[in-house]
Amino acid sequence: QAFFCLLLCIPRGSSCPPSCQCTERAGAKAVLCSSRHLEEIPKDIPRDVVFLKLDANSITRIPSNAFRHLSHLEEIDLSRNAIEQIDRAAFKGVAAGLRTLDLSGNRIRSIPKEALLALRAKLRLANNPWHCGCALQEVLWEARLDPDSVRDITCHTAPRQEYVGKPLLQVLDAGANFCSARQRTTDVAMFVTMSGWFAMVIVYVICYVRHNREDSCRHRDHLGSLPSAQARAE
């Protein structure tokens, strides 16, 4: 009975994942899962965690709602993993309170900007094999990046070979705009659409005018035949 009473007295969500260590840091709960050969984010992380270290593991993906139940979370360290995919809703539920998010040293080539839109956290994105394109440029425009690590965001691949191996900031400072090609594509698509509608209107007008002209000719011929028919009747 005493054992079951003890279990009931333990606050819900305060257990620690078996592969991690739970401790206190500045009066706040910290869950330390560094270098534990984890391949995914643990499901049983305490709800009252404030600091979460998942660095130096083998995590490959951050799925949707991965931290949604961790409403007190302020810092996440996911550096030095094998992360390749980040879902659009990966940080849903913790975006407002998160102060630091470390994704450096992974295998991230691109990240959906929707995953970062509501984030106020300071982001560390260095040392990933980034594809320098419009998506990454938009992340730089909209996200709050750690100024100490932004210089280490390097183009692993890019639309032009001359950009490969160079820091993204250097490429952008040189006048590159990866989103201009997308804008041109959008403009061309809009032009083609507008041209199609315009052509349809022209065809409709031509058919309408031709149809009215034919009706007018038939009506005129009909009227012209009326007097001769009356004369034959007399």
Automatic annotation (TrEMBL):
Q: Does the keyword Membrane apply?
A: yes
Q: Membrane topology type, per the record?
A: Single-pass membrane protein
* A single cellular component GO annotation: plasma membrane
Protein name per Swiss-Prot or TrEMBL: Leucine-rich repeat-containing protein 3
Give the family from UniProt. Answer: Belongs to the LRRC3 family.
| Domain LRRNT, chain residue ranges per copy | 15-51
Extract the signal peptide range.
1-15
Q: Where in the cell is it found?
A: Membrane
Q: Which UniProt keywords apply?
A: Leucine-rich repeat, Membrane, Repeat, Signal, Transmembrane, Transmembrane helix
Residues crossing the lipid bilayer are: 188-209
Q: What is its main location?
A: membrane
Q: Which InterPro entries match?
A: Leu-rich_rpt, Leu-rich_rpt_typical-subtyp, LRR_dom_sf, LRR_TM_domain-containing, LRRNT
State the Pfam families in the record: LRR_8 (PF13855), LRRNT (PF01462)
Keyword Membrane found = yes
The family database entries (PROSITE patterns) matched by this protein are listed as: LRR
